[in-house]
Amino acid sequence: AYRRNDRLYATVHPFCHRIENDDPQIEDAVRQYERYIRYFSAALRYAGFPYYYHTVGSAFSVCADAYVKVGGMGRQQGGEDFYFCRKFFNWARLKN
Predict the structure, then answer these.
(1) Which residues have a Cβ under 8 Å from the Cβ of 25 and sit 6 or more positions away?
(2) Is residue 70 part of a domain?
(3) Above 80 in pLDDT, residue 8?
(4) Which of 10, 34, 62, 93 has the fewest CB atoms inside 10 Å of its own CB, making it the most exposed?
């Protein structure tokens, strides 16, 4: 996608957490959380919020030039994907 569009810096992809536990309550809780993330993102988009993208770390990609331009990934012990994506929201064109 980046080679076809030189104005595209990052993409956001669908996600589904792998569950390695046979407990149906755990699976139900994880799926409920995933639905919440998708619903919240859709609600933000519907409301016209420009930064409606989810920030699940394993479900986005970034071209190397943009990665360098925003200073790379932070060293936070949690939420680094959120803070990293937030750097893009003011200037980058995302595709999901």
Answers:
(1) none
(2) yes
(3) no
(4) 93
